[in-house]
Amino acid sequence: RKKLSLFRSLKMNCRKLILPQKVVEAAQEREFDLQGYVFEAAPEQLRTPRIVRVGLIQNKIILPTDAPVLNQITALHKRVSEIVEVAAFCGVNIVCFQEAWTMPFAFCTREKEPWTEFAESAEDGFTTRFCQELAKKYNMVVVSPILERDEIHGGTLWNTAVVVSNTGQFLGKSRKNHIPRVGDFNESTYYMEGNTGHRVFQTQFGRIAVNICYGRHHPLNWFMYSINGAEIIFNPSATVGAVSEPMWSVEARNAAIANHCFTCAINRVGTEYFKNEFTSGNGKKAHHEFGHFYGSSYVAAPDGSRSPGLSRTHDGLLVAEIDLNLNRQTADKWNFKMTGRYDMYADELTKATQNDFKPNIIKE
Fold it and tell me: Which ranges carry the CN hydrolase domain (predicted)?
């Protein structure tokens, strides 16, 4: 009982954020789950609190997957803009959408058409221009994960997060570093591992990074964003219950602890139906659905606390008020960066990547 009580206290070590009644009513009218939480840091003598409000948005697709491509994109723009408006009412400074938010998560089908038609320019595509308008209107940094088409390099596709400054300027982009190969689900049918490394974006509200979906399974991926100075790492995802739900509640939380930073895990919701059957390499018959996207988006803090998750079945907005001072306070307590043996790890990892590597195993 004591262990269970300790676990619950850590999990819920953030108080509810009191939101204006008009905001609560707006969320009810627009039919999405709205939750708000506060992560506090201890008062300091020399630093003032660094308060930032982040918004995590999870949502279903709006139209059937065989509707015209532009209609699907436009419908999602409209839906997300309704939620972003409420986020602005809540005082959100940085908002992040789910992975490939402008389209069905159709990569399970292994078909190229019409799914590749959802790809856009990261710099000046339809969706980036839409996000720039939101950013300027609400003085809000917008993180927009899309399917990117890189026309400069032969029209290559990438899984990319676009970051738009609160001034409305295109700040940059970060591509997905790790591509899943689970059964016959292999996103490299569409795009390969990203080539942007571990970019961190300096915004007016703090240094942020975007660890897209499958990268959350790789501790070193989180670590490298942290090494480059990230204070908040967003993890926009599209993942289904049968594949990953047992791990979902702990991975971003573990990353927050290990890297002395805040992490924000975002997952879409709903079950998406595709006209043509496909298999999933699991011995089961061909099917029309990949599985249920279970939402449950949450925020985790460097001290091990985390918010409850959003709904498993409904669109939602999670607002978290965080004090970035907690990052350094936690680092000063646990000293993971100081006690890490990075030179030793780097040397041994370099050796491990060589063809003549021999594991350091001592035998009798």
Answer: 52-324
